[in-house]
Design goal:
The relative contact order is 0.10. The protein has 607 residues and is α/β, with parallel strands linked by helices. The strands form four sheets. It has an eight-stranded antiparallel beta sheet, covered by helices on one side. A seven-stranded antiparallel beta sheet has the order 5-6-7-8-12-13-14. It is 34% helix and 23% strand. The radius of gyration is 25 Å and the shape is globular. The chain contains 19 helices and 25 strands. It binds 2-deoxy-2-amino glucitol-6-phosphate. The site of 2-deoxy-2-amino glucitol-6-phosphate has 15 residues, from helix 9.
Length: 607
């Protein structure tokens, strides 16, 4: 989704802005642009397509100056054209970048048009530029104009503004969309996330909802939503610089698939002993809160929702804890009944997903406590939830979530133990699960090593237009995740079903053109699943089955890939890997943009 970078410094900022945009590419976008004040004029350059095209254009016509803002746009209002790309300007004086959606832009636009303002784009953003301009023409200074404009806006926004007549400052604000301030020495920055600025600083201020910032070279002044001056803490972001680098891999997605055996160690580190969960991992006061929990409501979107669906099986089966799971975009808009003592659990890689955040805000006062399982420290969900458990997967750059999902599952298993303890899970059972978790990195490594075999299987997919994914029990959400991965990056239409549902409809679709992928670990449901596979085979369907060693044999129309033997509880995590590899290789064979699939964004900060 849209990305913002801004810089005010004593040195030229164009290279910093362009590098910032490059680092935001993973969020998803379809055009990019920047505006730099050269001491006399605001120079603006915009391009559709990749940031590299903007970089090439800037080489031809260099922009120079020590004050600038830049943007990657993911189209909402108006097609991805150069005219719609940000920054937007009002006359030659003022440039603005925006992430979010202004819901009341139409009446505001009509008002401005009636007053003679000319619009050069179809965007909602351009109204903000003209509203600020109008206020300045009525005698306001930039700060007053910005504040009075923001007070008229409905919707979600993160904004960065620069003005030719006020060349010593950038103004910024956030409400509903993410924005961080990067703190430098004699230079300061804004960006949609820290990743964009790691080349210039590792010190950040995470803005609160409604904050307004005046950024000068040597000074950062912040007002809160009530326009009171506030001090926000500066936090040092600890990172490994190699994260933004593909290393030996052709795509970030593949790098992230291969990282899973290592990153799950980071999810577990400091949270378990040899045989016990360290409950303090959930933060101060978590144990007392967990004592009172009687049910769990999980809210998430996309892949994170699938993690929640797996957790439902664990929470009800192992922890005896009633659990409901719902996609955030549905939950937030319906009248919900929240039972007493509900733990409200959000799951999110980015911590900025607009629907998930809105769902949390809608019910925060009605629930016992909120907990988020998240991968981005300092993100909105982490800051606004009572408790958080970080997945520690490291930045995920590929738009298709991989390591974020498996680490979410690990974190959810830790929560299952914590709640299970209060509901009859014995010390011996806990020790057994923890023992299995210690084996997990090795099991994931064994699965990743199936890469070459899965690449061969993928050859049968690249030419197909549709695929079915089947699973039973906690492996059904894994099948859903496999289908989502295939859709996202290879654009092959895929659907997942609980295998027992086949004969209730989808069996009608089965023929030799419909590959049927099945995750079939060794568990109590395996025999039932085998019967479902026979139903497919009998109708000429082509089966691709991931199964435990020697559990199912390959035969005509049925290819089996043997998985390492796994404890039943870990199967959803381990069996996810071959499905990620399958989608990856199908996408590579089809020649799609694996890391930045069309129309998708990494961080979905608008609803
Ligand atoms: C995953 O591959 C997707 N790109 C998408 O479904 C994602 O999981 C969803 O948008 C939720 O994002 P979040 O985890 O950052 O909240």
């Amino acid at each position: 989704m849209c990305g913002i970078v801004g810089a005010i410094a004593a040195r030229p900022v164009t290279a910093i802005l362009l590098e910032g945009l490059r680092r935001l590419e993973y969020r998803g976008y379809d055009s990019a642009g920047l505006a730099v004040f050269d001491g006399e004029e605001i120079q603006r350059l915009r391009r559709t397509g990749k940031v590299q095209m903007l970089v090439d254009a800037e080489l031809q016509a260099p922009l120079s100056g020590s004050l600038g803002i830049a943007h990657t746009r993911w189209a909402t209002h108006g097609k991805p054209t150069e005219n719609n790309a940000h920054p937007h300007m009002s006359g030659e004086q003022l440039a603005i970048v925006h992430n979010g959606i202004i819901e009341n832009f139409e009446p505001l636009k009509e008002e401005l048009v009636a007053e003679g303002y000319h619009f050069s784009s179809e965007t909602d953003t351009e109204v903000i530029a003209h509203l600020i301009d109008r206020a300045i023409h009525s005698g306001a200074d930039l700060q007053q104009a910005f504040l009075s404009t923001v007070s008229q806006l409905e919707g979600a926004f993160a904004l960065g503004v620069m003005h030719k007549a006020f060349p010593d400052q950038i103004l910024a604000s956030r409400k509903g969309s993410p924005l961080v301030v990067g703190v430098g020495l004699g230079e300061n920055f804004i960006a949609s996330d820290q990743m964009a600025l790691l080349q210039v600083t590792d010190r950040f201020i995470y803005l609160e909802e409604g904050d307004f910032v005046q950024l000068e070279k040597d000074k950062i002044t912040i007002w809160d939503k009530n326009q009171q001056l506030v001090e926000r803490p500066i936090k040092v972001f600890e990172h490994n610089l190699s994260v933004a680098d593909k290393g030996e891999f052709r795509h970030f997605m593949m790098k992230e698939i291969y990282e899973q055996p290592e990153v799950v160690k980071a999810t577990l580190q400091g949270r378990i002993t040899e045989d016990r969960l360290l409950e303090q991992a959930f933060g101060n006061g978590a144990s007392e809160l967990f004592d009172q929990v009687r049910q769990v409501q999980i809210i998430a979107c996309g892949t994170s929702y699938h993690a929640g669906l797996v957790a439902k099986y664990w929470l009800e089966d192992i922890a005896g804890m009633p659990c409901a799971v719902e996609v955030a975009s549905e939950f937030r808009y319906r009248k919900t009944v929240i039972a007493d003592n509900t733990l409200f659990l959000t799951i999110s890689q980015s911590g900025e997903t607009a629907d998930t955040l809105a769902a949390l805000r809608a019910v925060k006062d009605q629930v016992l406590a909120s907990l988020t399982i998240c991968n981005v420290p300092g993100s909105s969900l982490v800051r606004e939830s009572d408790l958080s458990l970080m997945t520690n997967a490291g930045p995920e750059i590929g738009v298709a979530s991989t390591k974020a999902f498996t680490t979410q599952l690990v974190a959810l298993l830790l929560l299952t133990i914590a709640l299970g303890r209060r509901n009859g899970l014995s010390e011996q059972q806990e020790a057994e699960i923890i023992g299995h978790l210690h084996q997990l990195p090795a099991l994931l490594l064994a699965s990743v090593r199936l890469d070459k075999n899965v690449e061969l299987l993928a050859q049968d997919f690249a030419e197909k237009n549709h695929a079915l994914f089947l699973g039973r029990g906690a492996l059904y959400p894994v099948a859903m995740e496999g289908a989502l991965k295939l859709k996202e990056i290879s654009y092959i239409h895929a659907e997942a079903y609980p295998a027992g549902e086949l004969k209730h409809g989808p069996l009608a679709l089965v023929d030799k053109e419909m590959p049927v992928v099945t995750v079939a670990p060794n568990n109590a449901l395996l025999d039932k699943l085998k019967a479902n596979l026979q139903e497919v085979k009998a109708r000429g369907g082509e089966l691709f089955v991931f199964a435990g060693i020697d559990r199912i044999q390959s035969e005509e129309g049925l290819k089996v890939e043997q998985m390492p033997d796994v404890p039943e509880i870990l199967a959803p995590i381990v069996y996810t890997i071959p499905l990620q590899l399958l989608s990856y290789h199908a996408a590579v064979l089809k020649g799609t943009d694996v890391d930045q699939p069309r129309n998708l964004a990494k961080s979905v900060t608008v609803e």
